[in-house]
Design a protein that fits this description.
352 residues, globular, single chain
Length: 352
């Protein structure tokens, strides 16, 4: 137990350090790792949306999955599995990206923003904690757990679907790069050297499979089980990213004029509240869904497709935020997400 806790904390620390270095080496500011932003880039590269500033086949997506896959194979933990809650996984993946798009960043980027001096991250942190706490109350009060009962599958080819897909897409991009769209300017054009992104992402995926690291999971365990490991890990990720930023002269303390951020705190709060709530329901934040995908989890792979489609959707229909805050469409779809998951919650409680 102590060994696992140490690995969990080390995993979080590595993510913090590597993320800051990736940002320093070319990824957008405070965006060394951001699954929601990267999903939007990835969808753009596949020509699923036409925002020329958000198109890049982010290698971090591919190699976090591959790193997890390699780790699970070596540790004999690759296990094809599925539960009846696949519809929750799909919509969960979709609306976690919607919530993140309103905040402008996934839960990991939320911590990286704070480590970079962006105080607007505090509203997102408050929202995430609130969402996780509400979901934790639901779980503690009792719901119908039947849809979440995991069934192991023997020799399921479908468990390799997303793993093979991202590898094939990546190799194709190396051989025939013109098939894919790629930004010439904007956030999509801001990228760390390919080899560095590959190495760091492999390591992050590998160690995160071992540790089971998840921002919302760590928050949930701190709230429900009163475990200190989770909060220490989140503090470590933020602290080591902060120290790295200081060392690299990438720390910018303040509220206004922060890159990839806005001052509409209420909507940032609500965006992360929805993301945190959903992450507890479907067992994992966007980052954790990638890691579980590498382990053969079919629900996580369904969530992956939900996140990918959402990455295109938020761009095509302007369901996102910029420096001025969320759009009207973004606010509407965030509220739609709350309605859908409120209905799902009522259904789970009704059937308990």
């Amino acid at each position: 137990m102590i060994k696992q806790s140490v690995i969990f904390i080390i995993s979080a620390s590595i993510i913090g350090i590597f993320s800051s270095i990736l940002s320093y080496k070319g990824n957008p500011i405070n965006t060394g790792i951001c699954i929601s932003c990267f999903m939007e880039n990835y969808a753009g590269a596949l020509k699923l949306h036409n925002n020329v500033y958000m198109q890049y086949l982010r290698p971090e997506i591919t190699f976090i999955i591959i790193g997890s896959f390699i780790s699970s194979l070596l540790r004999k933990e690759f296990q094809p599995r599925i539960s009846q809650s696949i519809i929750y996984s799909f919509f969960g993946g979709f609306f976690m990206i919607v919530g993140s798009a309103i905040f402008i960043g996934c839960p990991i980027k939320m911590l990286l923003k704070l480590a970079g001096g962006d105080l607007n991250a505090l509203s997102g942190i408050a929202g995430l904690i609130s969402g996780v706490y509400l979901a934790a109350l639901l779980l503690r009060d009792g719901i119908d757990t039947t849809p979440f009962t995991i069934k192991k599958i023997k020799n399921s080819i479908t468990s390799y679907l997303v793993i093979v897909l991202v590898i094939v897409i990546f190799l194709t991009s190396m051989i025939y790069p013109k098939i894919f769209a790629e930004s010439k300017s904007g956030a999509g054009a801001e990228k760390a050297p390919l080899i560095l992104s590959i190495i760091f992402s492999l390591i992050i995926g590998y160690i995160s499979q071992i540790s089971r690291f998840c921002v919302t999971g760590a928050t949930r365990n701190s709230i429900i089980l009163k475990e200190k490991t989770g909060i220490i890990a989140l503090f470590s990720l933020t602290f080591f990213a902060f120290i790295t930023n200081i060392f690299l002269n990438r720390f910018n303390f303040g509220i206004y004029g922060q890159a990839g951020s806005h001052t509409q705190w209420l909507w940032s709060y609500l965006g992360m509240l929805l993301t945190g709530y959903i992450a507890v329901i479907i067992d994992g934040c966007p980052f954790r869904q990638l890691v579980k995908t590498g382990e053969g989890d079919l629900n996580a792979q369904i969530a992956f497709f939900g996140m990918l489609i959402a990455g295109a959707f938020v761009q095509n229909f302007n369901i996102l935020s910029d420096s001025a805050g969320p759009t009207i469409a973004g606010k509407i779809w965030l509220l739609i997400g709350f309605i859908i998951f409120s209905l799902i919650t009522l259904e789970l409680r009704r059937n308990r």
